[in-house]
Design a protein that fits this description.
CATH superfamily of the largest domain: Major capsid protein gp5
Largest sheet: 7 strands, mixed
Shape: elongated
CATH architecture of the largest domain: 2-Layer Sandwich
Number of strands: 18
Number of helices: 8
Number of domains: 2
Order of helices and strands: HHEEHHEEEEHHEHEHEEEEEEEEEE
Radius of gyration: 35 Å
Strand order of the largest sheet: 7-18-14-8-13-12-11
Strand content: 15-25%
CATH class of the largest domain: Alpha Beta
Oligomer: single chain
Helix content: 25-40%
CATH topology of the largest domain: Major capsid protein gp5 fold
Distance between the termini: 91 Å
Structural class: alpha+beta
Length: 446
């Protein structure tokens, strides 16, 4: 028996297994963080080494197959022969060819072999080559009834999902980096310009020797109080060890989406009690009533024009609308002498947004449904304070002790933040009783 040769082949295969384990360790690390330059270089070197060992293994197997195999009677025979068939001189039948699972202990082992070949472009293993061979008179993977049921199915890396829509207010609110759980802002009470535009100070003409009228400013405070926003999930240690996809990365991505969704929803409709105050519940928000005899669940051109007329600093405002308002907004117009003028202008879907009365409009599932208060929103989000304590990204911690007896690990994600409009009331202009505000919504049309 060619013992030295088979030992050499076994050593090559053990070295391949060691390299594969090292490559998998680097891949798992890449799911948690960005790889360092030396790690990427190590990975490329491992791929090259594995490719070289695959070729070396192939040559060794070919050499062993060419050697005669001796039995106790001194005759040359193949190592394994199929029952009822002639011996195959000078060839070997691999043991996995008679295994229903083709030598794979688990579906994960099969998947890793497939990923190894496809991702690293290495020589397919003997098992994969055997599975790829298809005939018409043999059990094969081509038909479930003739063997396909016995083959473990592969799984593509990654995860299909539908995340929450993007936050149109991102980058538009006024960010506040909080250094303590409670931060107060001093503000001037200057929202009634009919008497003073400076929070109570006045000036007046006077005759010579006549005393001027004294005045003083009035102030108020705006308070941000950060509260915790938490996410919690459990996962078994078996899942964390055996899943070919990093389950921790899936959790991080999922909770990241969920945190963003929750914060946008609070900016719009939060109660301000233990959570951010949304503009729909702010005392500074103006609600524009529907027209007389206006049908339920409709939006017309007059609604839009009246909202525009109540907006403070319109040049910095954006529109938010629920998706089911789209057909109403596209049809909205104002009647002119010779023609109707449409108020909605289509963008190109990429760098040029849709606009309504010249300002960008974003359709979002977080605006209220058609006919409810807040299905159409006009806002200058720079007048909205968004405070964060301890950073803007969710932090993560995990523990194996919470459910130690269940052999499960606990994952916790959290943020501390708060948000609200800093305006306490709408603005009364100098020469009008019609108030203005950076936050204007369309009232219910039932």
């Amino acid at each position: 028996m060619p013992t030295l040769n088979t030992d050499r082949l076994k050593a090559i295969q053990e070295e391949q297994a060691d390299i594969t384990r090292r490559m998998n360790a680097i891949l798992e690390a890449s799911n948690e963080r960005e790889l360092e330059a030396d790690e990427e270089n190590d990975f490329d070197a491992l791929v090259a080494s594995l490719e070289m060992l695959k070729k070396k293994e192939k040559r060794e197997q070919a050499y062993l197959a060419s050697l005669p195999q001796y039995s106790n009677d001194g005759l040359t025979r193949s190592v394994n022969t199929q029952q009822g068939s002639e011996p195959r001189f000078g060839s070997q039948r691999e043991s996995f060819e008679d295994d229903p699972n083709c030598g794979y202990a688990t579906p994960r082992e099969f998947l890793m072999d497939v990923m190894q070949t496809t991702q690293f472009r290495t020589e397919p293993s003997a098992q994969l080559k055997f599975l790829a061979a298809a005939g018409s008179d043999e059990n094969s993977t081509q038909s479930d009834r003739y063997g396909g049921f016995l083959i473990p199915e592969g799984m593509a890396p990654g995860m299909l999902s539908i995340g929450a829509e993007g936050d149109p207010t991102a980058g538009r609110v006024t960010p506040v980096a909080m250094t303590s759980p409670v931060v107060r802002f001093n503000a001037r009470v200057d929202k009634n310009h009919s008497t003073s535009v400076s929070g109570g100070l006045t000036v007046s003409r006077r005759a010579e020797t006549q005393s001027p009228t004294a005045s003083r400013m009035e102030f108020e405070q705006v308070k941000l109080e950060a509260t915790g926003l938490f996410g919690l999930s459990y996962a078994s240690e078996e899942l964390l060890e055996r899943s070919p996809i990093s389950f921790v990365s899936i959790l991080e991505a999922g909770f990241g989406t969920e945190f963003g969704s929750k914060m946008l929803k609070e900016k719009i409709s939060g109660t301000g009690v233990g959570e951010a105050l949304g503009i729909l519940n702010s005392d500074a928000t103006i609600s524009v009533a529907k027209e007389s005899a206006q049908s339920a669940d409709t939006i017309n051109g007059t609604n839009i024009i009246k909202m525009r007329s109540r907006a403070y600093n319109y040049s910095n405002c954006i529109w938010l609308a629920n998706h089911d308002t789209y057909t109403q907004l596209v049809a909205a117009h104002t009647a002119l002498t010779n023609d109707d003028y449409p108020l909605f202008v289509h963008g190109n879907g990429t760098d040029v947004p849709d606009t309504l009365l010249g300002r960008p409009i974003f359709f979002t599932e977080y605006a209220k449904t058609l006919g409810d208060k807040g299905d159409l929103i006009l806002a200058d989000w720079s007048q909205y304070l968004w405070g964060t304590l301890g950073g803007t990204n969710p932090r993560r911690a995990d523990s194996m002790h919470v459910r130690f007896l269940n052999h499960e690990r606990t994952f916790k994600f959290w943020l501390h933040n708060d948000g609200q409009p800093w305006w306490r009331s709408a603005l009364t202009p100098v020469e009008s009783s019609t108030t203005l505000s950076p936050f204007v919504v369309l009232a219910e049309r039932a």
